[in-house]
Amino acid sequence: MFATRSLLLLSLIALVLGKPMARNMKLHESREGIPNGFSLRGAAQPDRTLKLRLALVQRNLAELERKLMDVSTPSSANYGKHLSKAEVQQLVSPTQDSVDTVNTWLKENDINAKTISATGDWLSFEVPVRKANDLFDADFSVYIHDETGAEAVRTLSYSIPAELQGHLDLVHPTVTFPNPRGLPPVFTAPIKAEAQNLTSRATIPSSCASIITPACLQAIYNIPSTRAIESSNKLAVTGYIEQYANKADLKTFLAKFRTDISSSTSFTLQTLDGGSNPQGSNQAGVEANLDIQYTVGVATGVSVYFISVGEDVQDGGLEGFLDTVNYVSSMDTPPNVMTTSYGQDESTMSPKLANNLCNAYARLGTQGVSILFASGDGGVSGSQSQSCSTFVPTFPSGCPFLTSVGATQGVNPESAAYFSSGGFSNYFGIPSYQSSAVSGYKQALGNTNSGKYNTTGRGFPDIATQGVNFEIAVGGRFGTVDGTSCSSPTLASIISLLNDRLIAAGRSPLGFLNPFLYSSGQSALNDITSGSNPGCGTNGFPAKAGWDPVTGLGTPDFNKLLKAVGL
Ligand SMILES: *[C@@H]1O[C@H](CO)[C@@H](O)[C@H](O)[C@H]1NC(C)=O
Ligand SMILES: *[C@@H]1O[C@H](CO)[C@@H](O)[C@H](O)[C@H]1NC(C)=O
């Protein structure tokens, strides 16, 4: 009775104010409770400005996936026939109906939005919290990350008008929280060796068993030291969270470890979202220096680009990932390889946002870009070590349309690094290219870890390289770092050198690697069968013969890879 009467009263008021009487709102996304590590501080100030982004529903995602596999599978007649930017845009850009429907709704609500992607699938606008709550039946509140004190304005659920269903994919940031360990976390330990002064050469370790250098990687993986020759062959390294790549350090590094090439060999800077690359020696980032030194210093002669993504985005991180894919997919000639050593726990993401980003990586794959991500450094406990009762998959490694890179250590035998994140996604199913590899592993594993991981999820990583005791220069001094952060740039260098040979032979670059790695490429990899990735109070997953969720299919051998691609 009471409810009916107040509804009536509300409708009357609405009539008086000339507003639409009853909006038909549909719950669009929600999360169960506040994620671990955050607390609610209270309601967000009604007049606080929110920067929101809308993603429109993309078309033809099944066809996009079919095309991605078609151009990336060696046995396919269309192998290597990558799509142009225009072809991909035409395939996936939202329908005019979606664009019109969303724009009409924006106009009705007096919102000025700007398009922020080449395919027109992302829009951004600013509104006060009051209006955002009203538009989306949301409850934008201030959440505090307990460990760091970082603030995030989020809502645990939101709705959209029924007429936008099927047109509006998601609103961000809403139910996706920033990564509890900073956004995104850096998959690397701080320089841990007692830093050596440049001049104290006597103390520089020489053995690859204890220190990894470019010469070690060349020896372990048969990587050539001869120069790549194809000027079109580009390798992109992404940088976030004010990680700057220092040129003087690169020179110092090359002068010590690559006496066979000019120590002035450098990289090209690209920036977005107000990114920059200041060169003060105290501004040098461990992660950025690592990534640049092990690409410029290993992919001899390949053009390396450092994409520095700035902080002009609310909460950095994921929006940086979104802006990076939009930026790279708008290039007429995107890089052939892109390596990223940042990521976060999958559970911090909304499934819709995870899917949206994953499809963006599929788009780049159809254009022939090899997308590489470090798998994370927390073993089965996620991006970084943490307490947990079930295993924590990382993002974007769980996305089946990119290559996730784990870490190994030691030379004889080469075994899994204990921190190498791996496991099974809770958001993405098992892609066909890895179904037999994954089922073979589960059979060998038996009941170990049962109930701790998702038996129908995409398994990761796909491949691994060395990731322990990499010597780098930071601020003019040498030290070592560990992490899958070491592994992803190393693989990027190897793939770039292979691409150089392919392009020189009139062939296409490798593009999305996984269908190749899990078929004709597997014989070119060293199977890693010892070590494991403990976490969540368990021993984690053991490395075993064939694919495993610690080292993937194993580590690369350049000479064998040349044969596997038919060179
Ligand atoms: C490095 O050089 C600094 C200053 O020149 C000196 O104080 C320090 O002891 C040196 N460290 C090592 C490990 O030689
Ligand atoms: C397991 O993964 C599948 C995707 O393959 C997903 O649909 C399902 O919800 C996941 N289960 C859990 C408990 O997260």
From TrEMBL:
GO cellular component, one term: extracellular region
InterPro entries: Peptidase_S8/S53_dom (IPR000209), Peptidase_S8/S53_dom_sf (IPR036852), S53_propep (IPR015366), Sedolisin_dom (IPR030400), Tripeptidyl-peptidase_I (IPR050819)
Cofactor(s) for this UniProt protein: Ca(2+)
Signal peptide extent: 1-18
Primary location class: secreted
Catalytic activity: Release of an N-terminal tripeptide from a polypeptide
Subcellular location: Secreted, Extracellular space
Positions with a binding annotation for Ca(2+): D527, I528, G546, D548
PROSITE patterns linked: SEDOLISIN (PS51695)
Active-site residues (renumbered): E287, D291, S485
EC number(s) stated in the UniProt entry for this protein: 3.4.14.10
Keywords in alphabetical order: Calcium, Glycoprotein, Hydrolase, Metal-binding, Protease, Secreted, Serine protease, Signal, Virulence, Zymogen
GO biological process: one example: proteolysis
Gene3D superfamilies assigned: Peptidase S8/S53 domain
GO MF annotation: an example: serine-type endopeptidase activity
Domain Peptidase S53, chain residue ranges per copy: 211-567
Cofactor binding, note field: Binds 1 Ca(2+) ion per subunit.
Protein role: Secreted tripeptidyl-peptidase which degrades proteins at acidic pHs and is involved in virulence.
PANTHER family, alphabetized: PROTEASE S8 TRIPEPTIDYL PEPTIDASE I CLN2 (PTHR14218), TRIPEPTIDYL-PEPTIDASE 1 (PTHR14218:SF15)
Protein name: tripeptidyl-peptidase II
Lineage: Eukaryota, Fungi, Dikarya, Basidiomycota, Agaricomycotina
